[in-house]
Amino acid sequence: MGGKSTMAALLVILAANLLQSTYGRTYTVGDSTGWGIPANNNDDFYDDWADNKDFLVGDVLVFNFTNGQHNVVEVTEVGYDACNAANPVSTVSTGPARITLNRTGEYYFICGIPGHCSAGQKLNVEVRNGNTTGGVTPSTPVTPTTTTYTVGDSTGWRVPTNNDDFYEDWADNKHFVVGDVLVFNFTTGQHNVAEVTEDAYDDCNTANAISTLTTGPARITLNKTGDHYFICSVPGHCSAGQKLKVEVRTGNTTGGVAPSPPVTPSTTTFTVGDSTGWRVPTNDDFYEDWADHKHFVVGDVLVFNFTTGQHNVAEVTEDGYDDCNAANAISTLTTGPARITLNKTGDNYFICSVPGHCSAGQKLKVEVRTGNTTGGVAPSPPVTPSTTTFTVGDSTGWRVPTNNDDFYEDWADHKDFVVGDVLVFNFTTGQHNVAEVTEDGYDDCNAANAISTLTTGPARITLNRTGDHYFICSIPGHCSAGQKLKVEVRNGNRTSTSPTPGTPSAAAPGTSSSPGTNSASSHVATLSLVFFMSIAMTLFC
């Protein structure tokens, strides 16, 4: 009996290893230190970090850095040795940057900011194909002892109401450690977050800010011990109390202290218009009907899904709403999808300021109250159960395919796309783009009259109508080399024989899905696990 138990246990372990090996792993470069100039003149810091790690095709490197302070540039071996980013393979300037290792061989990364590479901010990894060797534990994206804090909880990052000490009170009794993350939720264009010195904090002075993030929500990793100081540099905001000081220490958080959760349990995320998204409706009362009978509370989030350049969302006054006038808009977001946190009670008014859109019904009024939602009312879910997020090309992403003009045609084959599904195009900003075009534009690789063009990766496109959709990369030569995709979209639930999409779920702020995974490997992993578990159960019996 003991022999059977041992054999069964070994088979279970083997099955678990097989299952793990089919998924790409995520490594956070430098672990809690992140991607920066190494301390104490340690030129070998990233060399030491990569040592003894076993990188495979499909693994993902996450470079955590502050926008504007660093970047990550993939270069050739010559560029790596010379710290020369003049002819990069790719450059990512927005952190955190996620880079999928999609081929075997050597990869070379440096920071292109002058002086950073020569000071040790450079990384060389060797990638192979196959399973990891036993006994090597990969670096995890976040260590178990770190925590993500949403600054101000449901209030977010804004000028506090009649309480200069609001953020001081919020930080009180919290225990911050190196590696923890602060999330500043604010409306882009209305606020920002600047890290400053102690003197600048006391004087509300951002003249020599350490860093400034202008796009919300902003995520800042606490990467050193000591006091950290943050203010909003919009005139008058800091002096009115929009300032935060946190003390960071090293080690685990003390027991019994509950961290601030990213989202309170009583708040809800509503996708405006559900699968229809935010566009000119075929019914003037469409958004009024959508909001009817829903209960919005302070802290809830509205997600406006729209194509950048085709629509926007402007928060306006009641008069602006009635007159479809955004001349004195409270705020305007031009990049979709746009997330707006409802941070005050009363009526909130939103319109699309593109001429003619509001008057055609692209306008929304919501009444916000304080407290929990009433029982028995089901809020609009962010994604309906029947919709799916597909990562175009799976782990390969959106790029010029290698010696296979039909790569994306093969990828889309036998997939079942329905209205509301989302396509995620993973590409390096500046190296590629994704243009939705007509059938003629697709056949001719011509984006001159593109329906829309997204230039920032990863790009998310919601399939909001039935019929054929055509996408190409408009960089000269890319489409003709096979970087083009056609999908046929239908209405209704997908059939029971629909294959598994490229990723199990959408990648949202603060979450990640298993990279480097495709439907084939998922099926192999599942079937293998079932096979081995069946044998194990037989042996136990």
Automatic annotation (TrEMBL):
Pfam families: Cu_bind_like. Gene3D superfamilies: Cupredoxins - blue copper proteins (2.60.40.420). SUPFAM superfamilies: Cupredoxins. InterPro entries: BlueCu_1_BS, Cupredoxin, Phytocyanin-like, Phytocyanin_dom. Residues 495-519 have a biased composition (Low complexity). Residues 492-519 are annotated as: Disordered. Residues 1-24 form the signal peptide. Keywords: Copper, Metal-binding, Signal. This is Phytocyanin domain-containing protein.
